[in-house]
Design a protein that fits this description.
CATH superfamily of the largest domain: Alkaline Phosphatase, subunit A
Structural class: alpha/beta
CATH class of the largest domain: Alpha Beta
Low-confidence stretches: 276-297
Strand content: 5-15%
Largest sheet: 9 strands, mixed
Distance between the termini: 54 Å
Number of strands: 20
Mean pLDDT: 87
Strand order of the largest sheet: 10-3-9-8-1-6-4-5-11
Oligomer: single chain
CATH architecture of the largest domain: 3-Layer(aba) Sandwich
Number of helices: 24
CATH topology of the largest domain: Alkaline Phosphatase, subunit A
Radius of gyration: 32 Å
Number of domains: 4
Length: 748
């Protein structure tokens, strides 16, 4: 063993000498010696030794400039930030100047200066890379997404190559810091530590009043209506710092028991005042007498199914000013718009942040009240439950389901949907996905049809189904992928690479349009009254600007509907937090605290986004999520559920040994099905939705096997029945006991 370790040590020693040799040669070169002996170098060292405090001013400004250059992908735009937003530029620089003051607490000032400077540069590099793949800049909430990111290697989010490069860069950075710590100079003749400590503390304390003053004077702001624009206007460092410090919700002014009570009582009075009116439902001939003009429908005891569908990155490209297509890529969607209620949908995000559109659509609450870029599903919903439309419809006897062809743990969805009160969640781990987009990174959406039908079949009575698609997801390749795409695209004024990206995207939504047609045909074939509400969660990550789209608003997508029970067409632009409530109102469903609030203020003619609309919504939202829950005291209270992953049982029917493997036959197997032998997971090969196989050597006669649907982080979402392994070739060994030996001895 000593010889082995000796050889290993010799190998690393030899490797160290090989690596060290060019660095030693460089250090001993004439050019390097000339530089270190030069007056310039000596003067430079003297500046950092005797005037370090003042040298931090230009260093801070340089670091801010580098961060903005990286974040904007443009030297010119970085210069524009300095000139056009001088106040924010100087304040960002002051923040770094304060951070650099930490170096004065140590004798190894050079090491700390390098360490702190590299932190800011690394933040700039991270934001630079992120903005190549999405519109929303890097924020503190993204740190909560690291676990999700690590489950998505070889995807458009995070490739294996990027992972390797990141690890190598981190190792190099650590090596440089270690070398500098060992060989770097130490400051001599420093002032007393207490004086340096007082200076550092005073600088950090100064940040708070400075920030308050600049905010009150309008130089800075505490709220970004547009996160991306906020980072551009006020600087990346300030934007990121705001996302760190301004998380959750602050207690609103006027929050009290009596104030919440007055809101709930006003909502209840409105609900009590509503007189149920009946639509003249179209008959079998499709005709109606048209005499009634109403805003609400009474379906009696026959409560319609309600399906809400989030369409990933869905955008009606006919509203794009520079795009031409060989034919209409979404004819079915346009048919729905012509014949059923539709409108623009005001969403809280651009280019990314699906779960924030999701949060608003399911709860009726607003993400504008949270910190910049915050994902409540990754923060507050980890700790507390929240009222949702699933709760509201539970009260009316609905079963509630989610169907999604992506991971159950992504965006912490399994936990979040439980906190929202849903019954079941059929994530990709429960779906036998075999078809993918041309790049192979995202499943096609057709699998959601069967998933939705299974969910609705799993319970009697009416269903509320929330369906999430992924086929339109970015990023979009800037090179040709399909040799003969169904839709040809011309992006006027764009580069060839951008044209390829648009062509790829347009052909994805062309497929989504066909999926929607098949989805609605499947629902209609059930013969049950059904309302479907479909909406785009955000515009695609294509770098669109306001002057390139017909609406002039990057926060507007579209929603469109379908029903088979004669609901009149009534178009209206709505926010994501209003959308479901508006249609529940048309169906005569008024229960629920947040639902009733939206219906009342909309009936009063208050406009979304205004103080009249949002102030009381803020109070209710704070009360439910952070406060004393007076809402549940005076209104209806709700609790989280123990969500069930999937609706169909995973079963093992039979198994046998063949050709060195153990083949397991059953139902509901997917690519995320893993075999457990006596409680321990073993390597599993997915053969089909009915067959899995493992190595024959991993099991033996009498072992107990199960099949589990596995999510990320080794989460067991669903488990099959237990199955006892029977090996036909197994021969039971004869066990000779002492009694047998005594009997044999007696016979002899």
């Amino acid at each position: 063993m000593k010889k082995i370790f000796g050889k290993i040590g010799a190998f690393f020693k030899q490797g160290r000498q090989i690596i060290k040799k060019p660095f030693v040669a460089l250090a001993n070169s004439k050019a390097v010696k000339w530089y270190f002996d030069s007056k310039f170098h000596k003067g430079w060292i003297k500046l950092w030794t005797d005037y370090a405090f003042w040298m931090h001013i230009p260093l801070s400004m340089l670091l801010v400039f580098i961060m903005e250059w990286l974040s904007r992908h443009s030297l010119v735009q970085a210069c524009g930030f300095v000139v056009d937003h001088t106040g924010p530029f100087l304040f960002n620089s002051y923040c770094i100047f304060v951070a650099l003051s930490i170096v004065f607490l140590s004798r190894r000032r050079g090491w700390w200066r390098l360490f702190i400077s590299m932190i800011f540069i690394i933040l700039g590099i991270i934001n630079c890379i992120i903005l190549l793949n999405r519109v929303s800049p890097f924020g503190y909430t993204d740190l909560y997404m690291i676990s999700d990111l690590l489950t998505m290697q070889d995807s458009n989010y995070f490739s294996a190559t990027q992972a390797i490069i990141s690890i190598i860069a981190l190792i190099i950075y650590i090596i440089i810091l270690v070398i500098y710590a060992k060989f770097g100079p130490k400051k001599k003749d420093v002032k007393p530590f207490w004086q340096r400590l007082v200076l550092v503390i005073a600088l950090f304390i100064s940040l708070y009043p400075t920030t308050i003053f600049l905010r009150s004077s309008g130089v800075m702001t505490s709220y970004f209506g547009n996160l991306s624009q906020g980072y551009l206007d006020y600087g990346y460092l300030y934007g990121f710092s705001t996302s760190v410090l301004d998380r959750g919700m602050n207690r609103p002014f006027g929050y009290s028991d009596s104030k919440i009570k007055s809101i709930i009582e006003a909502d209840q009075a409105y609900v009590d005042s509503i007189q149920t009116t009946t639509y003249d439902i179209a008959g079998e001939d499709g005709q109606s007498d048209g005499n009634l003009k109403v805003t609400e429908i009474d379906t009696g005891d026959n409560k319609p199914n309600i399906v809400v569908m989030l369409l990933e990155s869905f955008y009606d490209v006919s509203e794009c000013e520079f795009l031409e297509t060989s034919e209409d890529p979404i004819p079915f969607v346009h048919y729905l718009e012509d014949n059923y209620s539709t409108g623009h949908c005001i969403v809280p995000v651009v280019g990314a942040g699906t779960c924030n559109s999701e949060f608003e659509i399911l709860t009726g609450l607003s993400c504008n009240f949270f910190g910049p870029g915050e994902y409540p599903q990754k923060t507050i919903l980890k700790e507390t439950d929240v009222e949702s439309y699933a709760d509201v419809l539970h009260d009316d006897g609905y079963a509630t389901h989610i169907v999604h062809n992506n991971g159950g743990n992504f965006y912490s969805r399994a936990n979040a949907f439980s906190m929202m009160g849903f019954d079941t969640f059929s994530s990709k781990e429960m779906l036998d996905i075999t078809e993918y987009t041309p790049l192979g990174n995202w499943p096609t959406d057709d699998i959601l049809i069967g998933g939705t039908m299974d969910a609705m079949d799993s319970t009697a009575g009416s269903d509320f189904v929330y369906t999430i698609t992924v086929e339109g997801h970015g990023s979009y390749p800037t090179y040709p992928v399909e040799t003969d795409p169904a839709i040809k695209v011309k992006a006027n004024g764009k580069t060839e690479g951008e044209n390829y990206a648009w062509e790829y995207y347009v052909n994805r939504i062309y497929n989504v349009d066909d999926f929607l047609k098949q989805y609605i045909e499947a629902l209609d074939a059930r013969g049950e009254d059904t309302l479907v509400i479909m909406f785009g969660d955000h515009l695609p990550t294509m770098g669109l600007t306001e002057d390139e789209i017909a609406t002039g608003d990057l926060y507007q997508t579209k929603y469109f509907t379908w029903n088979n029970f004669g609901m009149p067409k009534e178009d209206k632009d709505l926010t994501t937090y209003q959308l479901v409530s508006e249609y529940l109102n048309r169906l005569g469903i008024h229960n629920g605290n947040i639902n009733a609030y939206h219906q009342r203020v909309m009936a009063e003619g208050k406009k979304y986004g205004t103080g009249d609309y949002m102030n009381d919504l803020r109070l209710l939202q704070y009360d439910i999520m952070y406060g004393n829950r007076y809402t549940y005291k005076y209104g209806t209270s709700y609790k989280p559920t123990e969500i069930e992953m999937g609706v169909l049982d995973v079963t093992i029917d039979k198994a046998y040994f063949f050709n060195g493997r153990y083949h397991i036959y059953g139902e509901q197997f997917t690519k995320w099905s893993k075999v457990f032998v006596n409680g321990e997971q073993v390597p599993t090969k997915y053969e089909s939705g009915q067959v899995l196989s493992i190595k024959a050597s991993d099991v033996k006669n009498g072992d107990i096997i199960t099949v589990c649907q596995m999510g990320s982080s080794d989460t067991v979402f669903r488990e099959s029945n237990k199955y006892v392994v029977v090996d036909p070739s197994y021969v039971e060994e004869d066990i000779v006991t002492e009694e047998d030996e005594e009997e044999e001895s007696a016979d002899n």
